[in-house]
Design goal:
This is FHA domain-containing protein. Keywords: Phosphoprotein. The protein is α+β, with helices and mostly antiparallel strands. The protein contains three helices and 19 strands. The chain has two domains: about 5-120, hypothetical protein PF0899 fold (2-Layer Sandwich), CATH 3.30.2320.60; about 125-220, Tumour Suppressor Smad4 (Sandwich). A six-stranded antiparallel β-sheet has the order 10-9-19-18-15-16, covered by helices on one side. A hairpin with a 2-residue loop joins strand 3 (about 45-50) and strand 4 (about 50-55). Helix 1 (about 30-40) runs parallel beside helix 3 (about 75-90). It is globular and about 55 Å long.
Length: about 220
């Protein structure tokens, strides 16, 4: 479960053509996600029967106080917001002109609780980043093999008595991923089913012992990382 799942939705309003939120306690991550989704919907452009383009360069402007609070959440917040944007785009059959370029900026002219989003279409090459969410942490997958298990030499160590030392592996080639069970004692579940080897689809759920991992793929502009 990410940051966005832990906050309740608040009221929304549009001010001078830009999405804004007002809270006594300041802006929360879920409100930023709602603002970004609204910006995609507002700026969606039908370019053909099968293609609806939406902005992929998004800048969220925040008051100094709100910006400082969001900065303390670190890189995981940007990843969560990017995931939310991608999911919203997929649900509405939107297309991006390039990788998603999302930034949070401080705007000294804004008051606490107010946010604004600037959006534009920016052509560019898309770079894909695969990650695994595990117990509130996000781990990026490198190209090649990533071993998951209880052993100290595993690439992703699972502190779980139900996991084998080398339990499963994910192979990521930069665009697609495959997961294999490595002959573990208790087996590996993918979306509730026992597997030996399978392709991984974005947002797949992997169960190893009592530990749950979620596989995600993030679209970014080439050169972002």
């Amino acid at each position: 479960m990410g940051f966005l799942d832990s906050f309740e939705r608040g009221l929304e309003r549009v001010v001078n053509g830009a999405f804004a939120k007002t809270f006594r306690s300041g802006v929360e991550p879920l409100e930023i996600a709602a603002a970004l989704k609204r910006e995609l919907d507002t700026n969606a452009s039908v370019v053909s029967r099968d293609r609806i383009l939406v902005p992929n360069r998004l800048t969220v402007r925040l008051s100094p106080e709100d910006h400082a609070r969001m900065q303390r959440l670190g890189e995981s917040l940007t990843d969560e917001l990017t995931s939310a944007i991608q999911k919203h785009a997929a649900e509405n059959q939107y297309s991006f002109a390039g990788g998603i370029d999302l930034t949070l900026e401080r705007d000294d002219a804004l008051s606490t609780g107010i946010l604004a989003v600037d959006a534009e279409l920016a052509k560019g090459e898309v770079a894909w980043r695969a990650v695994v969410d595990i117990k509130g942490n996000r781990v990026s997958l490198r190209k090649g093999r990533t071993i998951i298990g209880r052993g100290s030499d595993a690439d992703i160590t699972v502190d779980d008595a139900g996991a084998s030392r080398a339990h499963a592996e994910i192979v990521w080639d930069g665009s697609r991923a495959q997961i294999s069970d490595l002959g573990s004692t208790n087996g590996t579940l993918l979306n509730g089913r026992t597997l030996k080897k399978s392709l991984l689809e974005p947002d797949s759920i992997i169960d190893i012992g009592s530990t749950r991992l979620v596989y995600r793929v993030l679209a970014e502009s080439r050169g972002d990382r």
